[in-house]
Structure formats: C-alpha cells, structure tokens
Amino acid sequence: MFLLKLLLVPALIWLISAAAKKWGPGVAGALAGFPVITGSILLILALEQGPAFTRQAALGSALGTSANIAFGIAYGWATLRWRWPACLAFGLAGYAAAVALGHAAAPAPWLGAAFGLAFLSVAGRLFPRPPPESETAPPRPAGLAPRMLAGALLVLAITSVSQRLGPALSGLLAVFPVLGSVMAVFTHTGSGSAAAIRLLRGMVRGFYSFVAFCLCLAWTLATLPTAAAFAAALLLAVLVQLAVMWRGRH
Q1: Ordered mean pLDDT values, 10 residues apiece, the chain (250 residues)
Q2: Domains of the chain: which residue ranges?
Q3: How far is Cα 193 from Cα 199, in angstroms, rounded to an integer?
Q4: Cα 135 vs. chain centroid, distance in angstroms?
Q5: Dihedral of alpha carbons 244, 219, 116, 200, sign
Q6: What are the DSSP calls for 134-176, one per residue?
C-alpha cells in the first residue's frame, strides 16, 4: 500500500507533463483538472477506510473543486501585477479561504457537490483576459520533479490523517492544487502570465470530468464493489472530458 501511495500519483503527473509539452498549456490545464491526485487519494481511502467513508469524501471533493478554482482565479489576477511568489501566495490564500468557508458552512454532502458543479458554469468568466503581448510556450521541464514529489507527499499526508480529519474535510483537502500551483508557477516563469492564465482557466474544463467522477463514485460505491465503482466513475470522467474538449474545439 505504501508503494501505491508513493508511485501512483507521480506517474500520472509525469503523463500530464508530457501532454503539456506536446499540446500546450490549455490542454495541459484541462488534463490537470482530471481526477489524478484526488482519484488516487479516494482509491486509497476506499482500501483503508471503506466505501462509506469514501462516499462522503468524494462528495467533499466535488465541493472542493470550488476551492481549487479559487486558487486559479486569485493566481490569475495576481499575474497581471506581480511575479510568481506573490501570485502563489494570493492563490493559496484564495484556496484556504474557500476551504474554510466550505468547512464552516458544512452543507449537506450532495448539496455541496451540486454547488461545486454549478460553480463551474460561471468560474471561467471570473478569470482575467490573458495579456496579448505574452507569448505561449510550453512550461519548463524543471518543474517535473517538484510536481511528482508534491503529489506523492499530499497523498501520504491526506491518507495518513484521514480518519482524524473525517471524510468531509479529507475530501476538501484532497483537492489541494498540487498540480495547479506547481504547473502555474513554472508556466508563469517560463512562458509568461498569459500562458499561466490559459493553463489555470483550462483546468475549469477539466473539473467537469472531476465532478462527474466524484458524483458517480459516491453513487456507485453504495451498490457496487469498490473496483467496479471506480471503473464506472473513471469511464464517466473520460467520456465527460472528451465531450468537454470536443466542445472547446468546436
């Protein structure tokens, strides 16, 4: 189990980084919104804590997409005026505020998940316009090792204290913007603020498949074996992701 926690997420992050090199920040952002880290955390929670705990965590993660997007919005606006250290601080502050608000509000699990889905429809309009003078280039590969290490550490941290945190807070924290923060910083420093904004805004498209994964998992874990529930949720997420990317191209 320890090797699964240590190796699964870094391998998935490496695949997304390869996509960023080949197809650019917009596609990379959409793929980064896919349930890579959170799906891995939920799988480990299902193996360690059981289906009932994981159902609640999955719904908490669906709500947590709003906090992840809040990071991107805050970081995106900050890029218009500051360099990456201040932008990262603003982004993390936005994420922390959204998590605190969601935890304090403590909505019913399915209601919170519905809010996370509804927020996606307006989130794209809250980002700034990319500056026209910036050039688009792939993010620098130097960020790959920090991304992989941060992903592995987050999985280890959340799954180690999940029983103490409870399913709702575990689900919220499982959506910590590991990919978003590291990819945003290296895209920002290597390609400029316009590319960073496109990356972060592209993640909103990816979160449709993320929320579909979480909702399907919460529903199917009540009736299906764990492996079948995750397979069904992953299949739905892939179909939603393909549909969103097709719509974006047309």
Answers
A1: 58 67 62 71 83 86 86 92 90 89 76 82 85 54 62 66 67 73 80 84 82 90 90 88 72
A2: 2-249
A3: 10
A4: 25
A5: negative
A6: PPP-PPPGGGHHHHHHHHHHHHHHHHHHHHHH-HHHHHHHTT-
